Structures
1.
Amino acid sequence: MQLKWESSEVMGMIHARQREGHSARSSRAPTTPTSRLPASSPRLHNTAALPATEIHVEPSATQYPTWKPPVKGILSVLPPSLVPYAELSRIEKPGGLYGFYMAYLIGLTYGACLVTPAPTMAILAGTAGKLLIYNVFLRGAACTVNDILDRDYDRQVARCKNRPVARGAVTPAQAYVWYFLQTLGAGAAITLLPNPMVMLAYAVPIQLAVSLYPLGKRVTDFPQLVLSAPIAGGILMAAAAIGVDPFVTPATAAATASLFMSHYIWTTIFDYVNACQDTADDIKAGVRSMAVLYQNTNTFISAMGAAQVGCLVATGVLAGFSPIYFIGAAGGNALWLAAMVKTVKRSRPDICAWWFSWGGLLVSGTTALALLAECIGNSGDVDQLHVEVERGAAEH
């Protein structure tokens, strides 16, 4: 498919580039045009690079400076030898953890809405805490294997060039050991949950899928769709963690499938916005993604966001939820997505980074809170769907 560029953003990039002035350009060595890469540079596919003057806006040294030992934050208190491993796990960047973990909070609160009596707040909080531990290891392992497999491409992307494997702070072999240890940690966390074998049946395909996600960039323009499935799968795993089979009856299966699709679509938007930070570098390196394929951010987020909110509405209708859910989940998500449409621009990677840092917490958190309010507000009501869940569970 031919790349479609947002003319307004492209012109904004060009004008910003021109304003740097001839003196600034003459002070640095000439850059390699995007269409003339060395033969040795790895390319993930044969997407033709557009002319440099059309799309190439170099990230500034201030925006992505050369790596230096951290002097603030959690990384600064660690022994220097452990800093690269902590960076592999992204412990200093919780935005990705929100992206993983919030699916589990949605699954917990959704499951609590389906059974009567609803689980106590103590049970929900305890299970949420155990799932958080599991997600710290899961997300850390996923980031680690991503850095291993993408190391050659990370060196060509300004935002990623300082990652530990790309900059040579750890070897791929050392990173694989760290990945294995985190995978063991995730397995240990699963043993803390009720019915560990049931949890394992969900966790194994989730672990495999998030680990293979980086390879999706090599074979498809839709790697975000590969990542979204295992992350949305957390909804099913979390519901099962409190003893709810979300597919036990046709009514619950339809509601659950719609909620799963809503989070699947949201995760696609979430990762798309993150990738919008790197479009020029990704094209130069040959990285395939939906952010490269679909350049019109407004249209993409609007269309996908409408589908996401539509799925949330369908979940509420199928599950017989009250207006509390519709206002909080569907209405709240619609407002956040409208804000994304208004603010996300490729020419402002800092805004894209902000949404990646906080979007998972804000958007998915809104859904989880709406479901929790639904559970609390209707804890004394037993509608037909809830009766069917209990009856189906008893038959199993």
Note: Residues 1-57, 381-395 have pLDDT under 50 and may be disordered.
2.
Amino acid sequence: MAGDLNVTVGALLLGVLVTAVGYGITTMQTYLYMSRFPKDPWFIRWTVWSLLILDTFHITMSWHMIYYYLILNFDNKPALDDSVWSFDITIVVTAVITVIVHCFYARRVFLLGGRNWYLIAFILVLSVVRLVFGCIVTVKIFILKNLHLLPHKISAEVGTGIGAGTLADCVITACLVYYLREHKSGFNQ
């Protein structure tokens, strides 16, 4: 990571800043949801709270990572080659968040799609693959430590995990679009 700082640490900083904006939006949406829909089922409220807590943990780890690289190790290029623990943790936290969201939307697909268990099983298998490979990548990064080794040592695991998560997202989106169009009520605009 010590190569071109603009490409590495600069991109990391911009990513964390954009993530912080997203976190602010998530916090506002959580507040609005909780104040406007206090009688929603407990599992939906639990899902919203758990996602906010995990997102808070994720942004905290991201801030720590940026602080470590840009403040604690300012002008220490060799330190940029090593992975900091908070960077490693964000990977598995993201995978857990993804699984929770996939399960929430899989339930919606299940209810709208006539309780099709095969479709839900496919979505959940993809989501579990995403989680498992997120955990594998996290463990490998903790072991390797050197960021220069990562593209050569974990690219297959990263690709499999992200690919499974993306495929689950596409299946969920396609199903929701199809089922919602099929169930539209016919109200005029």
Note: The helical segments are 9-36, 42-72, 85-112, 117-144, 150-153, 155-182.
